[in-house]
Amino acid sequence: EALLDLAMKMPKAELHLHIEGTFEPEQMFAIAQRNQVALKYNSVEELKEAYQFENLQDFLDLYYQGMSVLLKEQDFYDLTMAYLKRVHEDNVVHVEIFFDPQGHLSRGISFETQIKGIYGALKDAERDLGITFKLIMSFLRHLDEASAFETLELAKPYLEWIDGVGLDSSEVGHPPVKFENVFRECKALGLPVTAHAGEEGPPEYVWQALDVIGVDRIDHGNRALEDEDLIATIKHKGLTLTVCPLSNLKLCVVDTLEDHPIRTMLRYGLNATVNSDDPAYFGGYMNDNFAALVKDTGISKDELYALACNAFEGSWLDSKSKQQHL
Ligand code: ADE
Ligand code: ZN
């Protein structure tokens, strides 16, 4: 089909991707073995069978277990390089990826080990595959603000490698306002900021992301559509929404892809983009997400173009680099 072919071949930017969520079971077992650590599952098949989630927390429980086999700089390098090689096949030419330093610090893995591995792979893939990148440090919102502040201190020697700050993990019960002070300091340091908001949490959390944190974009944003004033405000500010169709399906944010709000977002004039979130867990990388939209929604060629352009426009590339993609 021509539409599918177009979607696959378009140059794309991915703005919402957790590098720990690209950990494929095969690679997880291989790294567990070389690090001599045990996994709770006996085989790749057994692990894959556990990938059935009723909500975000079900997934997060597995996600934190999975990342616990990452111990060495080489592990972080290999994880990141595998993702970059994979999305190169999907014609992804720019990535802005999250990592969760607290998910590793809590296990005794230094900030330096993490970031050197991830950044090393990003630099090598930029040279060898031509993929440009931004690296976003994300705070875990189920932890307290003091922990986020400690993480920010550890990040300070590496700010040259860090292009922005995010907020992720369990949303409900952990509103953006909990992190008001630490994001104020991040912004004072000149870092762009984004936050997961309105994935499971109510429109009020999206309002807080805007008004309390002052986000430069919104990750997910699905539930913003429940509030007309919020829609108008997001549109007026020109904020980008990093939407994740297959993630929303797997985490039961939507019942079916036909019900997915991404086309409604475009119709409202919102800058929606397509992203894979945690592709190893949610059944697909960038092109799988586009293919699913082509197959299950009535998406048009113009909408596909709009989604792809929105990603370059909403990226944190400088305006000259953006123009080269548009
Ligand atoms: N961490 C990794 N993926 C996430 C998601 N979709 N929502 C919140 N936190 C996450
Ligand atoms: Zn996410």
Describe what you observe in this structure:
With 326 residues, the protein is α/β, with parallel strands linked by helices. The chain has one domain: TIM Barrel, CATH 3.20.20.140. It contains 17 helices and 8 strands. The strands form 2 sheets. The protein has a 4-stranded parallel sheet. Helix 1 runs antiparallel to helix 15 and helix 5 runs parallel beside helix 7. It is globular, with a radius of gyration of 18 Å. It starts with a helix and ends with a helix. The site of adenine has 11 residues, from helix 4.
Task: List the SSEs and their pairings.
Blueprint: H1 2-9, E1 12-18, H2 25-34, H3 44-49, H4 56-67, H5 73-88, E2 92-99, H6 102-105, H7 111-129, E3 132-140, H8 145-155, E4 164-168, H9 180-188, E5 194-197, H10 203-213, E6 217-220, H11 228-237, E7 240-243, H12 245-250, H13 262-267, E8 271-274, H14 279-282, H15 286-296, H16 301-314, H17 319-325
Parallel strand pairs: 1-2, 2-3, 3-4, 5-6, 6-7, 7-8
Helix pairs in contact: 1-15, 5-7
Bound molecules: adenine (ADE) and zinc ion.
Domain Adenosine deaminase: 11-324
Cofactor: Zn(2+)
Enzyme class: hydrolase
Supply the key terms.
alpha/beta; 50% helix; Adenine deaminase; 4-stranded parallel β-sheet; nucleotide metabolism; globular; binds adenine; TIM Barrel; metal-binding; 326 residues; binds zinc ion
Distance between the termini: 24 Å
- Helical content stands at 40-55%
The domain tally reads 1
Shape: globular
The main β sheet shows up as: 4 strands, parallel
Run of helices and strands: HEHHHHEHHEHEHEHEHEHHEHHHH
User: Count the helices. How many?
Assistant: 17
What value does the Rg take, in angstroms? 18 Å
Task: Specify the structural class.
Answer: alpha/beta
Regions with little confidence, pLDDT below 50 for 5+ residues: none
CATH fold assignment: TIM Barrel
- The CATH homologous superfamily name equals Metal-dependent hydrolases
The spatial strand order of the largest sheet comes to 1-2-3-4
CATH class assignment: Alpha Beta
* Count of DSSP strands: 8
How much of the polypeptide forms β-strand, as a percent range? 5-15%
Instruction: Please name the CATH architecture.
Output: Alpha-Beta Barrel
Distinct small-molecule ligands in the complex: adenine, zinc ion
From the structure provided, what is the oligomeric state, counting identical versus distinct chains? single chain
Overall average residue pLDDT: 98
Family: Belongs to the metallo-dependent hydrolases superfamily. Adenosine and AMP deaminases family. Adenine deaminase type 2 subfamily.
GO molecular function: hydrolase activity
Function: Catalyzes the hydrolytic deamination of adenine to hypoxanthine. Plays an important role in the purine salvage pathway and in nitrogen catabolism.
Enzyme class: hydrolase
